[in-house]
Amino acid sequence: MQSPLKTAAMSTDQKIAAMEKTSSADPRDRRVKVDLAFLYLQKGRETADFHYLDLATNITNALLDQDSGDMLARRLDNEINMMKHEFRRVATSAEDLTRLAPSDPGPWGNLGDALMELGEYERAGQAYQRMFAARPGLESYNRLAYFKFVTGDAAGAVQLMKLAIEAGSRIPEPVAWCYNELGDMFFKTGRIEEARAAYLQAIHLFPAAHKAHYGLGRVMAGEGKLTEAAVSVKRAQSIVPLVEYAGELEQIYKHLGKPDEARKQQALIDVVDKLSRARGETANRVLALIYIDEDRKLDYAAQLAENELENRNDVYTFDALSWVYYAQKHFDEAAKMSEKALRFRTAEPAFYYHAGMIAAAQGRGDEAKQLLRRALELNPRFDLNHAPEAARLAN
Questions:
Q1: Domain check: are 368 and 270 in the same one?
Q2: Are 343 and 258 found together in one domain?
Q3: Which residues constitute the domain of residue 273?
Q4: Where a domain ends, among 281, 311, 333?
Q5: pLDDT digits over 345-367, tens only?
Q6: Among 1-10, 108-117, 224-233, 338-347, where is mean pLDDT lowest?
Q7: Pick from 134, 113, 135: nearest CA to 124
Q8: Residue 123 and residue 237: Cα distance in Å, rounded?
Q9: Residue 51: what are its φ and ψ, rounded to 5°?
């Protein structure tokens, strides 16, 4: 057995190799299999590689086939379904687990996560409070921080995320994740230097923190340092090729006067979409927003966003739908979705920008200006294209 200190210092790959060896030596040890599956999930979170999710799924299915009541295996199954975005299934299963083991913080966290995606915010907050009561720490603090941010308390969210970081973890990736989340909160509320520092700290702790490289790129893009921004976002893309990284690079290259590079990123967006559809994915609000901003595939973008609504009823899905309907000139429907997106006055500049543009399209000029000004008050450089447009129309 590795000592705890040596294990903590190992990379996820090293831990997986060691645990695979241990599992092979004693294939009947169910706890080792569970631990290996959780390591696969950790690697999946770090890389967004579905292969690791499949490996964890295979272990979990085998364990549940042997004993459908195994609590560890059921918790593992719940984690896997969360990563697969099967939110209603997760909520139902997690509720069962909380009744069976009310002092276990894990199911309370999964329940809260699923309810956040389903837009059941009051119940989500209650679940997170139960998780915190069971075990205060990084995982409960960071969930409460996200809940606070979405439901309109950005200042409280920042304080809680700092507490999550202070609570720490034996492995660097979760702490780096919290630094990245803190950086996002700072960026969205215009605290640019603090955002930069948080992203850099995330990268220092975990160099493969792709979201932090992306966040740092957005900071630099807002400062007009477009060449440096492209390098940072390309670094994020080299770690995990998320579609939003290609979308950001496309815009940066357009502003740099590099149309060929921009077209390469647009082609990559379509490749990512094709691969997603091959996996059976039919919903993607992030891709929908990118297509709208590119002014192409508008009907397909609407389909992607509307399909998302079948599984998610959160403010981010409503915002995506508002922008889709705006692009299609369905302004009344867009306004309804935007109102739902802004129900908590979440500190998301894009929400206010979208709402302002919709109001302007409906002839509500004064309200449009107020909404656009609010977007700029939060962060006057929130987006390469939309922030200048908001500034032009807000006066």
A1: no
A2: no
A3: 241-281
A4: 281
A5: 999 999 999 999 999 999 999 99
A6: 1-10
A7: 113
A8: 36
A9: -60, -40
How many domains would you assign to the chain?
Answer: 2
The helix or strand, by DSSP H or E, that contains position 304, with its residue range, turns out to be helix 298-309
| 370 and 326 in a common domain | yes
Contacts of 289 (CB under 8 A, 6+ apart): 301, 320, 323
259-298, pLDDT tens digit by residue? 999 999 999 999 999 998 998 889 999 999 999 999 999 9
- The answer to whether residue 359 is domain-embedded is yes
Quick one: 308 and 334 in the same domain?
yes
> Do residues 267 and 307 share a domain?
no
pTM here is 0.92
Distances (CA, A) of 79 to 10, 63, 328: 23, 15, 37
DSSP 156-222: HHHHHHHHHHHH--SSHHHHHHHHHHHHHHHHHTT-HHHHHHHHHHHHHH-TT-HHHHHHHHHHHHH
CB 252 within 8 A of CB 226: yes
